[in-house]
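User: Hey, my collaborator sent me this sequence without any context and asked if I could get a structure. I don't really work with proteins. Can you help?
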Amino acid sequence: MTSADVRGMRRALELASVAAAASEVPVGAVVLDPEGRVVAEGRNDREATGDPTAHAEVEALRRAAASVGSWNLEGHTLVVTLEPCVMCAGAILQSRVSRVVFGAWDDKAGAAGSMYDLLRDRRLPYRAEVVGGVEADASTALLREFFEQRR
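Assistant: No problem. I've predicted the 3D structure and written it out in C-alpha cell form, which is a compact way to encode the shape of the chain:
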C-alpha cells in the first residue's frame, strides 16, 4: 500500500458519502495514474440513472478511459471503498488496470478474494494486484449506517 492509495481511498470515501446523500449505496472509486494522481472518479449512480451497470468502479473506469484516451489502463490503480463484484471485476480486467485497492470486504458478492477471486484467477489472460482492507473500518461504517437507515 502506498501513500497515493491512502489519499485515493480518502477521496473514494468522500464520493461514497455523496452517493449515500443521493440515496445510492455508498460506494466511491477513483483511478490513479502510474504516478498516483487521480485521473477519474466515480460513485454508485444506479438509482438516479436507472442503469444497472452504474457501479462506482464502472463509472470511474469509463471516465478514466476518456481522460487518458484509451480503454487500456495498464499501470493504473483503481481505488474503491467496497470489494468489486463480478461485473466490476470483469470491467477491471477488460480495462487492464494493474492494481485494485479496496476498503470493505464483501462476503456476499465480492470478486477480489471473498466469494470469488476473479482479479487474480490464473485461468484468465490478465490479472491485477489486489490490496484489500484499506480504510476498511470507515468503508464498512458508511455501508452499515446506510443500510440500517433503510431497515
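In plain terms: The mean pLDDT is 97. You can pass these C-alpha cells on to your collaborator as they are.
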